[in-house]
Structures are given as C-alpha cells and as structure tokens.
Specification:
This is Tripartite tricarboxylate transporter TctB family protein. The chain has about 190 residues and is mostly helical. It is built from seven helices and no strands.
C-alpha cells in the first residue's frame, strides 16, 4: 500500500498500544526499532550500575540500581522477543499513523524554543512558540491566536515571574527595567 492509497481509519483512534491500531498481534511501524533502543538503554544502565560498586553484596551501593536495571533489561528483552515474532502491520505507516507531520512540526517548534530561549529571552521566545502552535493547532483567526497567546503568556509570566519570582532568561527585553518602572509607578515615584 502506497502513501497515496493510505486512508486513516478514525474508528481505530484511541486504541490501546497493546492492540496496535486495533489489530492485535501486529507490529506497528517503529515498534521494533524502539524496542531495540530500550534493550540497549537498559544494558547501558546495567553496566553503569555495575560500575558503582560491582556486585559485592545485596547491601552494596550499586545493588538497587543493578537490580532495577536488570529487571528493565530482562523486561525489554522479553518485549523484543515478542515484537520480533509479530508480523508487520501492513496498513499503517510511520508518517501517517505513528508520527504524523503535525507532531514533527511541533517537535521542531520545541527544538527552536530551546535554541532561541537564551538569546531572545523567555517572553519573545514563548510568544513566538505560542503564536505558531496555537495558530497551527486551533486553525482559528489571528485575533483568536494573538489573544490566547498573549493572555496565556501574561498568565504564565505573572504566576512564575511575579508571584513565585522564578528567574527566566531575559534576552532582548529589558525586563528588570520595565518591572522597576512599574514598581515606581505604584510607589508614586516615577
């Protein structure tokens, strides 16, 4: 089945991952690679846990991390064994059913947010992120998008910066000077 022939079956939305796409016993796209990554990750964790103090006794510092990592590795290996036995689900594609383009776009927005946060600062970066995300997800007017974005950002800023005094990257906006000017207005000494 080619990408152009693929039709999304909305009756299968919300299906449990235990029954991929509603088709029990089928391997979803990406499932095998993900399971292999889990096995490798668990093995690396076990190796690192062993490096804490080796395996000397149950009371050694590395015993609990090693036990936890061993359970993870055994579980991941069992899942890999089951995954290898499943036939591939032929009616699903990675791009349409598992990671649709919208998910990729939003993931790229998050990466851009992380990259731009330090140079631009919290306020402009968050505003750009909210504007783009809300516009794409809501498919509503720019008036709605701007209102919700600015309102959300204002609420987040007031709670975290003013109420809880969490420091955020200032970037290109002279936030300290603006806050001081507002304080001076309310103190009566502009």
């Amino acid at each position: 089945m080619t990408e152009s022939e693929h039709h999304h079956d909305s009756s299968r939305d919300g299906s449990s991952d235990a029954t991929p796409g509603g088709a029990a016993g089928k391997r979803r796209p990406g499932e095998l690679v993900f399971t292999i990554i889990l096995v490798i990750f668990s093995a690396v964790l076990l190796w690192n846990a062993y490096g804490i103090a080796g395996f000397e006794a149950l009371s050694s510092p590395g015993a609990i991390p090693m036990g936890t990592a061993a359970v993870m590795l055994i579980s991941a290996a069992m899942v890999l064994n089951q995954t290898l036995r499943k036939p591939r689900a032929e009616d699903e594609t990675m791009l349409q059913d598992i990671v649709p383009p919208l998910v990729i776009v939003l993931a790229l927005f998050l990466v851009a947010y992380g990259v731009l946060l330090e140079p631009l600062g919290f306020l402009p970066t968050s505003l750009l992120f909210l504007l783009a995300s809300i516009k794409i997800l809501s498919k509503r007017s720019w008036g709605f998008t701007i209102t919700v974005s600015v309102g959300s950002l204002l609420g987040i800023y007031l709670v975290f910066r003013i109420v809880f005094t969490v420091l955020m990257p200032t970037g290109i906006i002279p936030e300290a000077e603006i806050l001081q000017a507002i304080r001076n207005l309310f103190a009566g000494g502009a």
